[in-house]
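DM from R.C. (forwarded with permission)

"hey, sorry to bug you on a friday — could you get me a structure for this? deadline for the figure draft is monday and I only need the backbone to look sensible"
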Amino acid sequence: MAFLDNSGDIILDAVLTDVGRKRMARGNFKITKFAVGDDEIDYGLYNKNHPSGSAYYDLEILQTPVLEAFTQANANINYGLVSYPRQDLLYIPSAVLNEKTFNSRIAQRSTGFNVFFLADDTKTTVAGVVTSKVMTSVSSVAESNILKSGDSTGRVVFLETGIESTDLASSAANQSTYISSVGLADKAFLVRYDRRFILTPMGAGPNAGFSNNSQRGASLNITLTKATGTRKSADLADYNEAMVEATMTRVYSDFSSGGTTVDTSTNYSVIDGPRGVFTAMNFVIRGDITQTDYSKYGTTSNNLFGDGTLYDFIDTTIYVQGVATNATLQLPIRIIKLAQT
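My reply, with the result:
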């Protein structure tokens, strides 16, 4: 459903999703709940200096149209509006990728493609060479850009939650006041992934830790374990969902050593304000992905890096959502392997 015009009378354009049309044909279509979202809104249009006064501050936002409705269940709302049981919340945590280089296990997206490469090392050349090795040695792809399927001790996608505001110090006291004590410390993340390509996500285990260990550094300890509670997604076609654990971040701005407080915490955390939780993830590629799958869902025999080496790849998106905060994040993943020659 989408607004065609909301400048005066409200005009709605409503279409059924593929699932809705099937149920309509079967005679059992019934609307039982709905969700609202604001993906199309640019809040930068809010103008508190409008010369006509406060009634016009949000005029441009209120008149922003959504031009059409889509039949895909996940096309209109990527970041849905949510409700919280408490009415006294001043700040809501966000989920943010941490791609800082203080720890060698943290993966970074490729700057040229804006994806994490997930190497399909289940396939090898005739000589037994795996894709990830060719990517680094021949195509000169940075190791930090490459995840290896099922590798529990290698590169990880690292993410944090927290309050992205410089109004509040990232102290232990503020973490307690604005996150823990108001129920905004996620105990787990819901991970949605395309089951045609991904067998299972892997997440940071119960002994994970991310904390200050000196004025000059922070420690990151991660052991990956397979996600739990796998089931089909009710919202996304061809997707499963599973749970990975979350652990409280212990990187604080008021860390003190020898009576001196020096804030180096932003060298390690991407959250400016009070920090919530973190997790780290990798993914296990399905071992039965065929060459036909690469041809049908992806791109084959592509000179991707311009060095003459040909690759096959499939692009997919992983959706991560905090179970308490509903903070969401989308991870662009490119499953890649050496092309058949």
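R.C.: lifesaver. The chain has two domains: 2-62, 94-338.
me: no worries. The first strand starts at residue 2 and ends at 5.
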